Amino acid sequence: MIQHFQFKPLFENNLLPGWAISFYYKQQQYKAEYKKDGKIVWLSAKPSSEEQEKVEKMIHELMLFHVYD
User: Count of CB atoms within 10 A of residue 25's CB?
Assistant: First the structure.
C-alpha cells in the first residue's frame, strides 16, 4: 500500500497539467512526475519490475481521486 502520498503542480499556472509526486511503498521513498497523459517518469529508483504495474495502478487511482475529482 502507498503511504504519505503527496503531489504538487509542476507549473505555477495550475491549469497546466503535470505533477510532482512522492510517496512511500514498502518503507522506501519514491519520487516521480505524473504527466498529463498519465505517464509516470520516475525520478528516483523504480519499484521492482514485479511491483511496478501494481504501484502505477495505485498512483493512477490516487491521482483520479485527488486531481480529477
Answer: 18
pLDDT tens digit string along 16-66? Answer: 778 999 999 999 999 999 998 999 999 999 999 999 999 999 999 999 887
With beta carbons less than 8 A apart as the criterion, state whether 3 and 21 touch.
Answer: no
What does DSSP assign to residue 3?
E
Where are the domains positioned within the chain? 2-66
What the block records as the C-alpha cell of 10 is: 509542476
Residues 6+ apart with CB under 8 A from 49: none
On the question of pLDDT at 15 being above 70, the answer is no
DSSP percent split of the chain into helix, strand, coil, nearest 5: 25, 35, 40
